[in-house]
Design goal:
mainly alpha; Alpha-lytic protease prodomain-like; 6 helices
């Protein structure tokens, strides 16, 4: 019976690692794509989502350490670094989005940004669902928590996508910086939860 339990746990651990490595790989590619799209369109929301992808890479690394049996102190240090990164992201986006709104700056249309965020939303929602199921089966609080962060990333991708589509279809240039403010809310909330110990 114990052997069967160990086999199931090993299988679930392999699935957990696969989900995290898939998240890492997607976000590494995403940073490159989003950087190109953000620079060409001069989009605050795309730039912010690219920075969020960088933070998600750090979060996935924390989970990989945890699943590998890394020490608690190391995990706490990594979480604090992620919390600091979220705080910096919030500060950058708040300042940049406010300046863009105040100046009435119109970002360009970004077909690349629209396609990438649409596909990303689908991929991220699928990864989040897999992490939730695997984390529950493993009774891994860290994997479940990071799965929740991944789910919110999917919501953020949807918000950025909406802003890009409204700008392209309706000429609502202000939808882009407003999507940036959505990212600010998320970044502040994540930083607060990490520093308060909820993660």
């Amino acid at each position: 019976m114990t052997g069967s339990h160990d086999t199931d746990r090993s299988r679930l651990l392999r699935r957990g690692f696969a989900l995290e490595y898939a998240t890492l790989s997607w976000n590494v590619v995403g940073i490159v794509v989003l950087t190109v799209a953000a620079v060409s369109a001069r989009s605050v929301a795309l730039a912010g989502f690219g920075l969020d992808s960088l933070i998600e890479i750090g979060a996935s690394t924390v989970v990989i350490w945890e699943l590998s049996g890394a020490g608690v102190d190391r995990q706490r240090r990594a979480l604090r670094l992620i919390g600091g990164a979220f705080a910096l992201l919030a500060f950058y986006l708040l300042a940049q989005s406010t300046v863009v709104l105040a100046a009435g700056f119109h970002p360009r249309h970004s077909a690349l940004g629209i396609v990438w965020t649409a596909v990303t939303a689908l991929v991220i929602f699928a990864l989040a669902a897999g992490k939730a199921r695997t984390g529950a089966a493993l009774d891994s609080t860290v994997l479940r928590t990071e799965g929740h962060v991944t789910l919110i990333d999917g919501v953020l991708a949807s918000a950025v996508l909406l802003g890009l589509v409204l700008n392209a279809a309706m000429g609502w240039w202000w939808a882009d910086p407003l999507a940036g403010f959505v990212l600010v809310y998320y970044a502040v909330r994540e930083a607060k939860e990490i520093f308060s110990g909820h993660h």
